[in-house]
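Quick start: read one record
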Amino acid sequence: MNRKNNNTLFVDLDGTLIFSDLLVESALELIKRNLLYIFLLPFWLLRGRAWFKHQIAQRVSLRVDLLPYNKALLLHLKEQKALGSKLVLISASNQQLVEQVAAHTALFDEAIGSSATLNCSGRNKLALINRVNGEHSFDYAGNANVDLQIWTAADNAILVNANSRLTRKAKAVTKVTATFDNGFNSLGGKLDRCLKAMRPHQWLKNILLFLPLILSHQLDSPTLIIQVLTGFVCFSLCASSVYLLNDLLDLSADRQHRSKCNRPLASGDMPIHLGLILSPALLILAFAIATQLPVEFFFVLALYYFLTCFYSFVLKKIELVDVITLATLYTLRIIAGAAAVSIIPSFWLLAFSMFLFMSLAMVKRYAELSHLNSSGITHSEGRGYLSKDLDILAVFGCTSGLLSVMVFALYINSDDIVLLYITPEILWFICPLLLYLVSRIWLLAARNQIEEDPVVFALQDGISQAVTLVCGILLWMANLNWQI
């Protein structure tokens, strides 16, 4: 028979009950709604942390049902509740948010958070615990160094994601009855999740930087290859910085997505504050390396970053403008590759790129909307599309893809072609291959077989790789002298 437990168990919220931080999430949501709030935040902070948290909480509402809860800890708390423990949720987060979390879990007897004038952290939290609990014994579940002064006064401690140093300190001041660890504190765990959040598979898109060098027939220059490789690294680091920023701004939307919910920040596998550090760090590193390349590349990289940020805050919510922006961002990669080696990209290449990537951007939106539609959802979260837009998106996308093939055909028949190829007639064989690639990816999208970014899909798909290889061989053959 289980022994009844009459102790009061105080449970921390941020980093303990949930694998996130409500203050950071609230601040990000506020900035996402209106970027100008970023100028008000310092003035609120001047009046103290409690006032700062109060002002943010009054202006945003979080989906507490979507937060990454510590399921193992929740199960333990339910067991303690069944044994007779009184459970109190106590947090430095604003009282309003703490009450919402407590109501959602339907587990706590009381919820205590920061008010407009009192920040419920450290000594203040301990004073509130003593006020609520009187002289009675209590247990405390926490995760940070600031909790040590509370564990000193507690009978028992529950450690959540505590590193080895904090664990030793906690054991020195009280009895540790339970520990919960999601594995992030190990070096391997940190590196693995940070790398996953950076999405290195998306770096494949930056292969586009090599296209101007390849088409200019200068692959025999090691210096130019090194310059493009350097540009590739810069764009990859910059892109990862943007992906982290997007993940920080889209936490709620990602948690409702069938696959994005598994991303490290959305799932809580990676601390949210680490994302706030890693994103600017990668950006600074990218621009530091970019100083080694021509100044034109530096400005293209800057334009790419600012356009992606503008896309994240504003443009991605506007239907059609979002896909045009995505096509532009892909084309900027080609421009950057040309800038890295001081080549002027041709009109034909840029026109071909815009139409082709406009089509692929449409595929991405079509696939997302199609999956939502099959789940009974009529509109996409944070986007401007409805399920009834599927047919028109397919028309726009297919047309744009076919136009890219037409641009290529016109290029073959232009005067510019004879300057680069000895036998340009061979390039005509590429046209049906391009038609096949464009038509196939749209056919797969219509069958709901495109699960991710179509550009990454095309780069990883065996058939697409084989067709692209044949196109490359035809480009090489067109530069050979076939006269006997």
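The chain has a mean pLDDT of 90.
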